[in-house]
Amino acid sequence: MSDKPMLRALRREPLDHPPVWLMRQAGRYLPEYREVRAAAGGFLEMCHDPALAAEVTLQPIRRFGMDAAILFSDILLPLASMGMDLVFEEGRGPIFPNPLRGAGDIDALRAIDPASDLGFVGAAIERVKAELPDHVTMLGFCGAPYTLACYALEGGNPKEQRTVRTLMHREPEVFERLMGKLADAVAAHLEYQVASGAEAVVLFDTWAGDLNRADYERFAAPFSRRALESTVGKAPRIAFVRAGMHLLDSVAALGTEGMALDWRVDLDDAFNRFGDRLALQGNLDPTVLLGRPEDVKRRTQDVLAAAAGRPGHILALGHGVLKWTQPEAVAAFVEAAREPVPSRS
Ligand code: CP3
Fold it and tell me: What is the CATH number of domain 5-337?
């Protein structure tokens, strides 16, 4: 069994210090990332080139020494493999210019074969693994079916979710057919990433927090569970639902080894409720990193005090690093994880 701190935390073994990593730790807040991106010409170009994807995955590890490297890629790439046009517009984020419109489009989505459709992902994982320091865990990831359905149906930022909810409520069987196809694609892609060397995987459900508990249980959770089946017993899994405070019992029941919490969740309370069953990741508010390094340290110590050294804590932000973050703030966050854990006052 591996003694990497991240994997030990996912097994809820006691550790002197929690492992630490950050969502979006490779990204625009790093000058060395912006340099690679400018030379590559764009975000998708970087994702498709295993050498560039590996390089930017490793950049934050070299600079800050986190305990996990998350593959540089995107949750939306499998949708492109299923047949959807995907573009990243400067300043606007990802866009599907031809979003799914009805049962015909859904039935036309292809099943994916990750080794051929997403071979650049496996190649990037292998390159990162070859250079990773011994203590660092390689993370793979996918978007959860509900979040993927949101982008596929809305075409852009799914804030309103009008098309998603209309399909869900008017034609639930068509919606569930889409969710089933997405679950199978995610299952295949997670399994492929593990086969390529990912040592743990994260399932990101960025938009499911907008559902109430009953709709999450009916329309989202069964498909997340199906997506996670292919990796049972092969690698530990972490489930994340942004703004999912009201869904924690349901997310905990997905069967993953870890649950990531956003900053709105009381970490002490979450440990009391779930700490005997799950590793818990989180959960500093990413906006705190817009503050001064000494304040980042203090606020990180508050998070560590809430976890109080209980086994299974993985220190992380409650969501991704913001692009306006100064690298010094990320350094302060990572350093705070290595200092003595403050006791709960
Ligand atoms: O460092 C890492 O965390 C690994 C790489 C990673 C990216 N996206 C790179 C990226 C991961 C794990 C993701 C996941 C992802 N992508 C999610 C789920 C997690 C979350 O953030 O809620 C979602 C919803 C997406 C879809 C997506 N990709 C959006 C909405 C955007 C635009 C937002 C933005 O910050 O511009 C992207 C682009 C994206 N994905 C960037 C990065 C580094 C910015 C690309 C750039 O312009 O250089």
Answer: 3.20.20.210
